[in-house]
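Box 4.2: Ligand-aware structure prediction
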Amino acid sequence: LGDSQDDQSLSVEDDIMDANLSSSNETIEQEVEESALFGDAWMDMLDNVKLGGRWAPDENVGGNTEKIAIVVPYRGRRAHLKMFLLYMHPFLQRQRRNYGIYVVGQRGQELKFCKGILFNIGFISVLKDDSYDCIIFHDVDLIPEDDRNVYTCGSTPRHLSVAVDKFNYTLPYESLIGGVVAMTPSQYRLLNGYSNLFCGWGGEDDDMHKRMEKHKLQIWRPEKDVGRYTMFHHKTPPENTERFSLLKTSDLRANKDGLNNVGKVRAKITSMSRQRLFTHIVVNVDKRR
Ligand code: NGS
């Protein structure tokens, strides 16, 4: 993609920075504070991870210099986040990935969880933080079971979580794209990211699938015996009752509702801090205007 796309994302980036951005030491969401999450023994196991949840192999394996960011939307799933981090760091290291883990938390409890907004803000923030080649949009409750499921990007979006235990390791429907998806920055920009309008459980991924169809982007998937995941049990969060009507207008909204208006419309970053096992970005989502 040309320069115009980059220019666009730069102006979006300015929009999402809150004028009152707090210092990096301020921790807003107490519940994901590292000390509360881990005891010393666990931390020792992962002491090779660099501050902010970064790691890279010493060697330049086969000339692979791809840098990947794992973007994890988060609110109030402390036990899941703990298990996620304890599992994902060793998994990504076994795959010799050059990576960073970013937890993007939604501040406050008054609004439903707006996963698309958190993905868009996470995308902009990680690229501001470093020159990532590949962004992996990852639910906190999914753990890959097979090391052959390589966390990398390709010439087309890669849907990695194709066989989840909850669905007896089958894909419940062909257009499902939720769970774990890997995209390059230019693929994500082409799609204008996720819609900012889906808050509450369900539908934001189906809307993303429609964006991929609109742009005729094929979806790459691993074999079912490789793309296996364990999902942590949880109650389904409050659903998005508007999702079916929103999905009727997906094509009409795609170019104007997403990455290019996330800052203007709905959300600001209130803090970004380096924890031992992840970089923590906290987002304030406004009431819908
Ligand atoms: C569909 C949802 C998707 C969701 C999928 C699997 O019904 O957003 O279930 O959900 N679509 C709609 O509601 C329109 S899961 O059980 O993995 O949480 O991703």
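In the box above, the bound molecule is NGS. Residues 1-14, 18-31 have pLDDT under 50 and may be disordered.
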